Amino acid sequence: MSIRVLNQPATDVDHKAAVGQSVEPDGPVHDRRITRQDVPDEWEHAVFEAENFIIEGPASVEIVDRSGQQIQMEAVADSLDRYLESTREPGIISTRHDDVPVGVPVWEWTTDNGVHYETTVDDEEFTLVANLGNETTKSKMARLRCLNGDYGGYSVTVYSNQEHRRNDGTRVTVDCDLHAVTLGHESQVMNPEADFDVVDFKHGGVLEASIRRRLRRRNSLAGRVEDQL
């Protein structure tokens, strides 16, 4: 019986390099790193230097989403401890369902001016507090896109352990594992009621002014009317 040797170049292929050899680039180099020139001045600290960058809002609401699935809040509550506390299978914050971590979920957060946020689940809503990092290009981009409005919606990634189907075809998840909450544009997330806001980052020890304005507008009558359009 012949023995096949793996990871060796085939003799009939013009390989650029074999195993253990390096390849010098012979075309243009595309630098995809985010730089300060890509970021408005007022957001530089938040994107590159702020140790903490906190977002908060409903990650899931017990309604039928765009895929025809409804996740019961009791199922989310039962999976929440593992999502936040597991050391072997921790849940993550990702972007656009690519499951690359850009942050971590946290149980609670209190701003320097005393505003308190908590991760909670009640009969109708799963509210999530998350802390986005700044150690990779993807996490820096996530911060920037949260600030400029490209990201404004949460979407949960669950494995439905047990579900039943209604007569109208809706899939109702009654037991699940919660693996990730991903960030995306609010118009594209599966659950149209799942949105978040940037609520804190360290910028001179206070909440950055433009974020305060955004939160005030969200809570104003005009903001509530705008959300319904």
Structure description:
- This protein is α+β, with helices and mostly antiparallel strands and 229 residues long.
- It has a domain at 39-189.
- Helix content is 22%, strand content 30%.
- Strands 1, 4, 7, 8 and 11 form a five-stranded antiparallel β-sheet that branches. Strands 2, 3, 9 and 10 form a four-stranded mixed β-sheet that branches.
- The protein starts with 43 loop residues before the first helix and ends with a helix.
Task: Record keyword descriptors for this entry.
alpha+beta, 5-stranded antiparallel sheet, 5 helices, about 230 residues, disordered C terminus, 11 strands
Total number of helices: 5
Query: Strand-and-helix sequence, N→C?
Result: HEEHEEEEEEHEEEHH
Kindly report the average pLDDT value. 78
Rg, nearest Å: 22 Å
The biggest beta sheet reads: 5 strands, antiparallel
In one word, what is the shape? globular
How would the blueprint of this fold be written?
Elements: H1 44-49, E1 53-61, E2 69-71, H2 73-85, E3 92-95, E4 103-106, E5 108-110, E6 116-118, E7 120-121, E8 125-132, H3 137-148, E9 153-165, E10 171-184, E11 197-201, H4 209-219, H5 221-228
Parallel strand pairs: 2-10, 3-10
Antiparallel strand pairs: 1-8, 1-11, 4-8, 5-6, 7-8, 9-10
